[in-house]
């Protein structure tokens, strides 16, 4: 049975504050947090919130930053998740140690990078059942039901035995290095972050009718085996619940 909690906030800024309080509470429990970041509009709002409000209130030495997925483009490309995080967070909070940042190199050959990043995660993270385990994984929810970079047409990648796999956008064909579902579900706190009316239908489908969509949407397969699933939603994303 999924250990699940749903938190609804008035708007993305209030959600950012709520998620920050969540992270701070976990920092009271864990001496160090390994955090898998995601791309997208909601994390961008959170990173802006951190840069503006949390330069001193968060002990940045106690957080290591990783990525759940990365588009296979160089950091200077506007679609690169690390580049977005750098612009909105790292460049604005100089107290974040560079040696706490472990990016996926989107400019490298995808298969080689997936193997390399898998070794990084294996060496830096706690291992549970022979797979890496993050303290926190931030997840986005695509309008098509994808999460990390595992799309519905490649849903079999979710159960890959590999730590990292190569996802491919079904329309653009752009490749992405992504952690597999086994890593997501092996983590302690898995957090969906969703804002806006365009997310409401999929939020409803997955929370209310998860079993019906298990073989359709990768996001429906999120089920932390020994951890907890949280939903941080704004009022619009939660409007159909």
What's this entry about, in short?
With 241 residues, the protein is α/β, with parallel strands linked by helices.
> Biggest β-sheet, characterized?
6 strands, parallel
Rg, please? 16 Å
Poorly predicted regions: none
Give the structural class.
alpha/beta
Count the strands?
A: 11
How many helix segments?
6
Span from first to last CA?
Answer: 20 Å
CATH class: Alpha Beta
CATH architecture: 3-Layer(aba) Sandwich
> What form results from the Cα inertia axes?
globular
Query: So what's the oligomer here?
Result: single chain
Percent of residues in beta strands:
15-25%
* CATH topology (fold) name: Rossmann fold
Q: Would you tell me the overall average pLDDT?
A: 98
Biggest sheet: strand arrangement = 1-11-10-7-2-3
Question: Any key phrases for this structure?
Answer:
hydrolase, six-stranded parallel sheet, 11 strands, 22% strand, alpha/beta, three-stranded antiparallel sheet, 6-phosphogluconolactonase, 241 residues, 6 helices, 6-phosphogluconolactonase_DevB, Glc/Gal-6P_isomerase, single chain
């Amino acid at each position: 049975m999924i250990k699940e909690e749903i938190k609804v906030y008035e708007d993305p800024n209030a959600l950012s504050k709520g998620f920050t309080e969540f992270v701070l509470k976990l920092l009271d429990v864990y001496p160090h947090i390994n955090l898998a970041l995601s791309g997208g509009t909601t994390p961008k709002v959170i990173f802006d919130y951190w840069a503006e409000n949390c330069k001193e209130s968060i002990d940045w030495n106690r957080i290591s930053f990783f990525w759940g997925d990365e588009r296979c483009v160089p950091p200077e490309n506007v679609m690169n998740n690390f580049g977005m995080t750098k612009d909105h967070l790292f460049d604005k909070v100089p107290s974040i140690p560079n040696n706490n940042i472990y990016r996926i190199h989107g400019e490298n050959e995808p298969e080689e990078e997936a193997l390399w990043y898998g070794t990084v995660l294996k060496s830096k993270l706690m291992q549970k059942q022979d797979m890496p385990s993050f303290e926190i994984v931030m997840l986005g929810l695509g309008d098509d039901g994808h999460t990390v970079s595992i799309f519905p047409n490649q849903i079999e990648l979710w159960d890959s035995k590999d730590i990292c796999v190569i996802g491919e956008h079904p329309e653009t064909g752009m490749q992405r290095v992504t952690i597999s579902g086994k890593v997501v579900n092996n983590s302690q706190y898995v957090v969906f972050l969703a804002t806006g009316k365009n997310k409401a239908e999929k939020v409803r489908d997955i929370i209310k009718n998860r079993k019906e969509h298990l073989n359709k949407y990768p996001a429906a397969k999120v089920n932390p085996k020994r951890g907890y699933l949280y939903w941080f939603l704004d009022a619009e994303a939660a409007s159909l619940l």
